[in-house]
Amino acid sequence: MGIDKGERFNREDVFVDYPYETVMFRWDFKEKKIYRKFYGEAESLESVPHENRLFNESLLNGEEITAAEYLIGKNA
């Protein structure tokens, strides 16, 4: 089941795990930016574009996770 961007993206951070590509994403609602974190790596310092293929696929096929799960990360 996909993750609805809707109004929620205007009021809170959203964290998404996309295990098919071993990547997680963090939507920062204050900055209106997307950050990427591959399994076993630190979060990207630079934001990724809104049209990023992996991010959009993760919204369709990934699963929402908590901030704590995102911060802990996953091993590659």
Describe this protein with a few key phrases:
alpha+beta; 2 helices; 20% helix; globular
Number of helices: 2
Largest sheet: spatial strand order: 3-2-1-4
Overall SS class = alpha+beta
Instruction: Look at the structure and give the mean pLDDT.
Output: 94
Q: Short description, anyone?
A:
The protein has 76 residues and is α+β, with helices and mostly antiparallel strands. Helix content is 20%, strand content 26%. It has 2 helices and 4 strands, in the order βββαβα.
Explain what the structure shows:
Helices cover 20% and strands 26% of the residues. The chain contains 2 helices and 4 strands; from the N terminus they run E-E-E-H-E-H. Strands 3-2-1-4 form a 4-stranded antiparallel β-sheet. A hairpin with a 4-residue loop joins strand 1 and strand 2 (23-28).
List the SSEs and their pairings.
Elements: E1 14-18, E2 23-28, E3 33-38, H1 53-61, E4 63-65, H2 67-72
Antiparallel strand pairs: 1-2, 1-4, 2-3
